[in-house]
Specification:
This protein is of the alpha+beta class. Helices cover 33% and strands 25% of the residues. The N and C termini lie far apart (101 Å).
């Protein structure tokens, strides 16, 4: 009973206000005062802590302050590289699973005395091949007809007039293994070259794109004069950044992707676009 009786007394003592004043040191005249209580001081402290937490949370969420912390950039880059590596592995596992299912289906057909059916995924990435979320539209079909037909925007016809071969520099020394062919959707050429061969810019220009993807490795696009665009694919490294001015013959990266299992040659893909249309790089450059 004494405990229950002491609780109201303790609460009153906790909420009872005290007078806090400031006195003049010379004549002890009160200059300022206020009334405070332990409960008020605790409430003010909690409010201050809450405001400080909200302020720190806002700074972290809406400003790049974390990038100033030592080691944060390295960890973020490492996490992004790990994520991209897992995406590539997931895509490879999906292809292997598809091949296993196709193999089992064909074995079942052979056991039944039927002819096996060969099914392939094609060259596109399996994730991009899924159009269930983005069905074709009428406008997309009309644009495709204009680009693939005989109209003024057709990819089969280009008004670009090739310049002299000596005006552009070959980006890499290699052997052409696949030539330009619009009908086969080869908008450039593919060359086999030695590993880690340096890739050079074909002409003076400005880098408009430099990125990495599982499908093309590092991809670089350089905008040149006369509305000419050069595209470099399957790079293992990129030494340039968007907006950088490039001189003819300047090294922009190194080639990557293996040509075949056990081979030392590497594939390098090169495209030239003039006035928004693909053109044959061998009409501009002697490889």
């Amino acid at each position: 009973m004494k405990l229950f009786r002491s609780i109201p007394a303790a609460w009153r003592e906790f909420t009872r206000k005290r007078r806090l004043s400031m006195l003049d040191a010379t004549n002890n005249v009160e200059e300022w005062y206020t009334h405070i209580s332990p409960a008020g001081m605790l409430s003010a402290l909690l409010a201050f802590a809450l405001l400080l937490f909200i302020l720190i949370l806002s700074i972290v969420a809406y400003t790049p302050v974390l990038e100033l912390l030592p080691g944060y950039r390295v960890e973020a880059a490492r996490s992004r590289e790990y994520l991209m590596h897992n995406l590539v592995r997931l895509d490879s596992m999906e292809r292997m699973m598809h091949d296993m299912i196709t193999y089992n289906d064909n074995i079942a057909l052979i056991m039944q005395g039927k002819t096996p059916v060969v099914r392939t995924l094609g060259r596109q990435d399996s994730v991009r091949s899924d159009k269930s979320l983005v069905p074709p539209s009428g406008a997309d079909s009309l644009l495709r007809a204009e680009m693939e037909g005989e109209g003024p925007y057709s990819l089969l016809h280009t008004a670009a007039k090739p310049r002299k071969n000596i005006e552009l520099t070959a980006p890499i020394d290699g052997i052409v293994i696949e030539r330009f062919d619009i009908k086969r959707e080869n908008f450039g050429i593919r060359l086999a070259a030695s590993p880690d061969t340096q890739i050079a810019a074909t002409d003076d220009g400005t880098v408009v794109l430099s990125l990495w993807s599982p499908e093309t490795g590092y991809l670089i696009q350089i905008q040149h004069a006369n509305n000419l665009l050069s595209i470099y694919k399957n790079l293992s490294k990129s030494h340039v950044s968007v907006g950088q001015r490039i001189k003819r013959g300047e090294v922009i990266g190194t080639n990557a992707e293996t040509l075949a299992e056990g081979s030392d040659a590497k594939i390098f893909e090169f495209e030239l676009w003039s006035n928004g249309k693909p053109v044959d790089p061998e009409g501009y450059i002697v490889f």
